[in-house]
């Protein structure tokens, strides 16, 4: 039987989560092997492709813009014909996502206020869709299928908030001239849509202009990917949905190539030389772990319970409050976007290494806690 678009999406996310986990393990093993120096040297290789950036930055600024472009497409799909279109259905996960961003950031800030670690306040606010849905997939039919959609919607709203945070709080030395150039490129794309351009390739030249101008403006270049995704045309060509077809084509590229490559380039932290000991005694690492584990669980779960009590939304069919708390714990799997924000928040290598340890530990604990809560819920309702 042919799968629905949502089933295909969830399947790809689950499989992508496995590939992402493997890439993370490879990065950690490589960075801590006798070839650890080669690991560092590889990502520092300079590539002059019009912009003189090293391989690490081409991945983080260039390839990840494609990842965020697909995020933009996903957000647009949800707004146009998905869960975010129906206000009553969308209210509960939206409120839960807001709580899941605000509380971790608040806990982190309370622990690090007035210290050099404070700029990383947004690190524990992120949820990794691939890993979270991947963990749910491992549970199979032990959980209701509608819980996956509920968590997916929370993660997409989380992405919207994370994108806004990156754009507003992690911009450097803004250049109004370059920003205006990027805006003009976006206006050009709107004009293309008005003129009836429906082929994605027709937008590529302007998309490159927007990305370059955004990169030079001081706003992180990945924001260009999101904005371009939101401006892509909808409708049909020869009976094919333009938006869904473009998302389908690029989703596997990001899930199985770009995001794992990002993990390979960013997750490799040398755990020797006292790094683990430094992390164990570091407020930064504990602030991230606390934010991901306690902040996400309490923020998502607590906000959802308050919304239900206030009558602001309804639970999906088959999902009860116990399931919500399990999903809330899985929301603490930050990883990809958390690593991304850590690279933006800090320039000191030691801080970044400690932040990575906190992200890895917090994500692992959150994943294990989410599985435990969901399996416990199943045991409670089993005959």
TrEMBL record:
Any one Gene Ontology BP term: regulation of pH
InterPro entries attached to this UniProt entry: Na/H_antiporter_dom_sf, NhaA
Coiled coil start-end: none
Catalysed reactions listed for this entry: Na(+)(in) + 2 H(+)(out) = Na(+)(out) + 2 H(+)(in)
Any Pfam family hit: Na_H_antiport_1
A GO term for molecular function: sodium:proton antiporter activity
Any one Gene Ontology cellular component term annotated for this protein: plasma membrane
Main location: membrane
Keyword Cell cycle belongs to the record: no
Membrane topology label: Multi-pass membrane protein
Domain of life: Bacteria
Family recorded in the similarity comment: Belongs to the NhaA Na(+)/H(+) (TC 2.A.33) antiporter family.
HAMAP family per the UniProt record, alphabetical: NhaA
Name of the molecule in the record: Na(+)/H(+) antiporter NhaA
Species of the source: Paraconexibacter algicola
């Amino acid at each position: 039987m042919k799968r629905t678009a949502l089933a295909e999406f969830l399947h790809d996310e689950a499989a992508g989560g496995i590939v992402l986990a493997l890439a993370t393990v490879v990065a950690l093993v490589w960075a801590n092997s006798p070839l650890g120096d080669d690991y560092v040297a590889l990502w520092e290789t300079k590539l002059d492709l019009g912009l003189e950036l090293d391989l690490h930055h081409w991945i983080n600024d260039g390839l990840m813009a494609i990842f965020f472009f697909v995020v933009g497409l996903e957000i647009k799909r949800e707004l146009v014909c998905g869960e975010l279109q129906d206000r009553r259905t969308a209210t509960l996960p939206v409120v839960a996502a807001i709580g899941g961003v605000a509380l971790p950031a608040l806990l982190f800030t309370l622990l690090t206020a007035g210290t050099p670690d404070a700029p990383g306040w947004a690190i524990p606010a992120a949820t990794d869709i691939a890993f979270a849905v991947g963990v749910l997939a491992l549970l199979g039919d032990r959980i209701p299928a509608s819980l996956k959609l509920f968590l997916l919607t929370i993660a997409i709203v989380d992405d919207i908030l994370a994108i806004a945070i990156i754009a507003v709080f992690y911009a450097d030395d803004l250049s109004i001239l370059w920003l205006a150039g990027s805006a003009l490129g976006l206006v050009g794309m709107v004009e293309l849509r008005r003129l009836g351009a429906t082929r994605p390739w027709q937008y590529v030249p302007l998309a490159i202009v927007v990305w370059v101008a955004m990169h030079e403006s001081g706003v992180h270049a990945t924001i260009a990917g999101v904005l371009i995704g939101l401006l892509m045309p909808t409708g049909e060509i020869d009976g094919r949905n333009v938006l869904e077809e473009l998302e389908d084509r690029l989703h596997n590229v990001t899930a199985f190539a770009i995001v794992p490559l990002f993990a390979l380039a960013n997750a490799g932290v040398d755990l020797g030389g006292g790094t683990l000991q430094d992390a164990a005694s570091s407020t930064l690492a504990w602030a991230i772990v606390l934010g991901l584990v306690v902040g996400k669980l309490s923020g998502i779960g607590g906000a959802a319970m308050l919304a239900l009590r206030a009558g602001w939304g309804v639970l999906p069919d088959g999902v009860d409050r116990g399931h919500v708390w399990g999903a809330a714990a899985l929301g603490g799997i930050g990883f990809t976007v958390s690593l991304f924000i850590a690279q933006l928040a800090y320039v000191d290598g030691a801080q970044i290494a400690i932040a990575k340890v906190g992200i890895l530990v917090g994500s692992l604990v959150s994943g294990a806690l989410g599985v435990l809560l969901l399996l416990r819920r199943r045991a409670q309702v089993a005959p």
